[in-house]
Amino acid sequence: MSDKKISKYRNAFESSTEWGLRRKFLKVHHDKFDEDRLVCLSMCYVNIEVYGCTYPAPVMKCIQRLKAELK
């Protein structure tokens, strides 16, 4: 997925730190989920990493697995 295509997902309220995390997540995982699911998971990922949010166990496990692939 190109940077131009990914940039359409940036929200006006996102800081550069939040967007950097989310952009990388979107780039790495763009081929694994449909668009809506990918965007939702990317938002959850940032909320977990930046704000310490928690989600139901299946979501947390999914994000943990996807996070491991970002390294």
Summarize this structure as a short list of keywords or feature phrases.
mainly alpha, 4 helices, 71 residues, 68% helix, globular
Major sheet size, sense and barrel closure: none
| C-alpha Rg (nearest Å) | 11 Å
Helix segment tally: 4
Element-by-element helix/strand order: HHHH
Distance between the termini: 18 Å
SS strand fraction: under 5%
How confident overall, as mean pLDDT? 95
> Given the C-alpha coordinates, what overall shape results?
globular
How many strands in all?
A: 0
The percent range for helix content is 55-70%
Summarize the structure.
This protein is mainly alpha-helical. Helix content is 68%, strand content 0%.
Task: Give an overview of the whole structure.
InterPro entries: XTBD. This is XRN2-binding (XTBD) domain-containing protein. Residues 6-71 form the XRN2-binding (XTBD) domain. The chain has 71 residues and is mainly α. The protein has one domain. It is built from 4 helices and no strands. Helix 2 packs across helix 3. The radius of gyration is 11 Å and the shape is globular. It starts with a helix and ends with a helix. The relative contact order is 0.15.
